[in-house]
Specification:
The complex is a heterodimer of chains A (229) and B (416). Chain A is built from three helices and eleven strands; from the N terminus they run βααβββββββββαβ. With 229 residues, chain A is of the alpha/beta class. Classes of the chains: A alpha/beta (229), B alpha/beta (416). The structure holds flavin mononucleotide.
Chain lengths: 229, 416
Amino acid sequence: MQTFDLGKEGLRALNSSLHALKGQTNMTAWEVINPKGAHAIAAGVDAPVDITVRGSTGYYCAGMNKQATIRIKGSAGPGVAENMMSGTVIIDGNASQYAGATGRGGLLVIKGNASSRCGVSMKGIDIVVHGSIGHMSAFMAQSGNLVVLGDAGDALGDSLYEARLFVRGSVKSLGADCIQKEMRPEHLALLADLLKRGEAADKARPEEFKRYGSARKLYNFNIDNASSY
Amino acid sequence: MTDLPRTPPRFSATFTPAVNAEIRRAAASGIYDIRGGGTKRHLPHFDDLLFLGASISRYPLEGYREKCATDVWLGTRFAKKPIHLDIPITIAGMSFGALSGPAKEALGRGATEAGTSTTTGDGGMTEEERGHSRTLVYQYLPSRYGMNPDDLRRCDAIEVVVGQGAKPGGGGMLLGQKISDRVAMMRNLPKGIDQRSACRHPDWTGPDDLEIKIMELREITDWEKPIYVKIGGARPYYDTALAVKAGADVVVLDGMQGGTAATQDVFIEHVGMPILACIPQAVKALQDLGMHRKVQLIVSGGIRSGADVAKAMALGADAVAIGTAALIALGDNDPVWEEEYQKLGTTADAYDDWHEGRDPAGITTQDPELYKRFDPVLGGRRLKNYLKVMTLEAQTIARACGKNHLHNLDPRTLCR
Ligand SMILES: Cc1cc2nc3c(=O)[nH]c(=O)nc-3n(C[C@H](O)[C@H](O)[C@H](O)COP(=O)(O)O)c2cc1C
């Protein structure tokens, strides 16, 4: 285990050490201590390593992550795992705004709650939130899956494209062009797998969720939908 | 009947035939007019400025014998690897999607041969463009289509796009006709939809967030790449100051004349500030912060000739960017296609329905039949020629003003 004291050695030294791990490495276990809410911790990692951050992080922790498993033993600031490509990010606490924004792959697990705009513009990432999510979540979400064991705030899935949203609790309101959809067997199977990978299999069953998706009415300009543009 | 003269028919200056035609179009279709290009109305522009030339108190440089240098450094503030260009005329960001693959290749070829940079656009980086561009600026846009850390690392500079002159406050637009399989795949969208990009970034708002975002991008790329911030002409004094505060290496300022691939006509014509009015405010902001020439300023919006380049630089810009003019150099709107423009209900030099993807010149299209018409090698050569001419023109003016580098042009060389 490589232990890195962020308070002492600084962010630049941390990220350049992590970026130096290209492809396969035998230094697979890392621990970051004294994060103290610093921004961009472990941003841009591209190696199959396991990084544990002992404490809470600022903006954009694990930004653009590829391959790495990053565990945050605290809460995460805005834009955690933004534009993640692959790998896994697991947050023990809560996540601030824009968690997983524009994520293209990999898995983001938030064991607490997520604030507004969770999964905004997501493009292929899977997000599993054990608690609830705030307003405007999955705004313009393009693809991937968002699973919420708790409730969703206002305007869920506004201007949604092809992302799939699964919410167990209540949804305060749906955004433009987002509708509830039928849960078919393939969705239950997908959800079972996501709950398992999201460390939530013992907390919820797939049958308890409702599925939401795009009505696809705003896909092409149409005068009858003018009020939604 | 008397022979009294009759009042001849008189058109209203308010309800002109063009205005009335638009009312009829709106009434029939129920949707606003979307088009490409920049502002078509008359605006204060570089034509309203002149150079003084040399006189008794200033002596000129010999036109062909004395050196007048043209190179420029960009990104010297924080980047470990700043950019050095031979000429201060860069190619502005234009999306793959709006433009065909071969057109992007031609921009790369022409820019590289002329010793300057080209820029990606909404929709991500293409191999055509990376492969043919010696210096490539990678745009970081609200949509984040195609954004990934590998392309961030293989670009030469990163441009965070906050706004565009044609539509400060608006997002991109690409209508279904142009969402081909390749475009759909790069953008991760269903084929054939009318795609409207977000106008705000998904994970930051305001100058304090922007500072952290820029820091993150620097961390991901190990502080190597220059980071530009592109703003549309709206509040240039404050926006320039805030971009500097947020840590930009370069500010790209695009005035309202600036072209776009597709936007509402009402937006293009009625929102934003002409570039001529923007530059002095941006320069003032840089000077007030003690950052003029330390944070470089690239300006764009209706730049057509070496005279425009020289004027922009005399007002304090470090370099310029061209969009529309580069497309025209490639062959856009060329009268050789007049017959086909007529079929589309328009005429050469007025064709602006780029969003429909039926460009006879094969530049603003994703239709393989049309883009096959366009030869990227020839297009690249034409662009190189045009860039060289603009440079020679700017040098001609600078020498006449007694300047041995384009950067030595200053407001005192202008007739004001
Ligand atoms: C076809 C076309 C596509 C464009 N696409 C983008 C884009 O993707 N991102 C962007 O920031 N600006 C885009 N622009 C604006 C240009 O980067 C630039 O600001 C503008 O063209 C400069 O003005 P000019 O056309 O008068 O030279 C586009 C412009 C054109 C003409």
